[in-house]
Known about the structure:
By secondary structure, the chain is an alpha/beta fold. β22, α23 and β23 (564-570) form a beta-alpha-beta unit. The two termini are 38 Å apart.
Amino acid sequence: MVSLKDVEPLVLSCIDKSDGRAMLGVVGKVCADAFGSNVEKKLGFSKFVKLIEALDSVEVFNSRGGPYCRRHHWASKAKKSQQAKKETSLSPSNTASHATLVETSDKLESLKKIYPFNCNPTDSTVNVVAIDCEDVPENLHLVQVATHDNIYVFDCVKLGSRRVIDFLRDLLLDERIVKIFHDLHRDAAAFAAIGNVEGLRGTLDTQLAMEHSTGEFSMDLNRTLAHLGQPQHQLQNAMKGRMDGRAFFARRPIDVAIFQCVIDGVRLLMKAQPRLFDLLDDKLEIVREASDARALMAAKSGGTRQIAFDVAKQYSISSFELLQVTRPNDMFQTSPLVVSDESDTLLGLLPEDIADELRDHTHGLRDIVLDKGRRPHCWIGEERLLLGNEDRLVDDTDIDIVVDAVGGFGSDNRAGLEKQLHRISAMRNRDAGINGLTLRVGRYVKGNSDMIVDILYNNPSASILFLGEPGSGKTTIVREVTRVLAERLNVVIVDTSNEIAGDGDVPHPCVGYARRMMVPSLDKQSAVMIECVQNHTPGVMVIDEIGRPTEVEAARTCKNRGVRLIASAHGDLRKLVKNPKIRGLVGGLEQVTLGDAQAKEEGKKSGSVNKLKSQRAGPPTFEIIVELRRGEHDEWSIVLDSGSAVDGILEGLKYKAQRRTRNKETGAIYLESNYY
């Protein structure tokens, strides 16, 4: 049982030396760390609060300076009815003394004559507010507006989100009033989609301010507050565990903890405003211009963040709006993809009637399939197209026409064409006769590597593994990455089936200055990888389709000798971790035996006690994972720390990844952080 004696030293450790008070959110986190996350379940939160209140040595305050008294909602919630909660949970005595919940039409009307909602600042008025929104951009359930004197929380569930936006419209578009946001992407998108406010005016995004001052891209709120000399938003971190993603802020009545959390964000931004303005000084207008540009772009993109690559800073990621305003000449220029497939050469292998029918269907053409005794067909994207009429069946003559043009197949039943990227694969019967052919269209796509140019240039030692199912575009991307890196480095391709650089002694021009070592058969690939390192001193080695344990070990050996690796494999990260043959690419797995106490602690997470635990065996050979999906060539998932991702998967957790997308028409690149 947790007693007052246990709690007192922890509360004392949380005292703010500047004012001698402690915040409950901080105390709660410290006590949870000390007693375990189940301290609330053991005691009940109301009893926990009473224990803290009983201390004579310190006052425990809420995050806005109001004391936590025994009549507080949390301290008595076990004894209150649901109706009592509704009536008292948001009363001024129970929350901040200067926070106003706007949930009725009368209250909304009464604010029309009050600054800043009347948009009539006087000379004595500091024309700055802080704004934040919840559950955006898909919904809009709460809007918080903070001034230097008060905080207003608009309940969009009760008032209607469109009505609230209409009420705030003049404020949102008034350039005279500076509106501080932290990462306004989603807020601006919600204002545009729900209230038709296309582009805010007079905004100041603290993320852009910090990026301009420190160079750090997409700084989070607590780091921003720390840079501006403010305490962290402790309650925000504590609330994350309670948010389940199902319209958390739409629940009514509003939980006091939620109310405290949302007003703390804008309150802290307002407290940081003087330091923020001093920090920006004469650069304030530059950041405001970039912020307004971000608001307009976010409204058009649905809240997705457009990024740029700063050439002057080794192609590091930058906010597009800020770089465009400050140093547009240092921006790496992305452009729409240029696709070259040279499909006429492949069609020239086919019987004339089949080739003629396909000439009008080369866009998106992926595979051509000839199976003896069946109708020929092809795959265009994810759609099958049958060729010829019902009586047109593939026969031995059709097969022989293609085989004779190709000239034979290797031990892997694959063949290529001189200086071409196409691949022809054979199916054989029991007598080794060919009874089926798959003709894969090989393409090179200039500009395909733009999505990861920061990773290629700004992190020169990190090895990259492209994962995806067949037809997801792995090899096409690897070709372009090879060309780009070969402009600066000694790049050598270990080309097992001549699929990356094409068939013949001379590599296809699409790989640029990269050299190529051919592999006589699949079982020799690992040996050629080692030979490449020993004989040709590559800075970068490119390997297509690692799929056997010997290749995994060879890749680890090459990595340990200082060679950067670019490779591909089938599947996705979770499937890779489950694949015993190749999971060594991301560190491998080992079984460890836990002690009794540790096994019980682990059992609290999983629900069952097991003394055997799987953990990552070593450092990953490939630090960066790029996951691709068939049919989604302009959307990639990028894991920048594969080791941490694997650890999370083994713990049964989601792993963090960047979702990068590309606009097909403009080449613009967007970034979001997701968990998979």
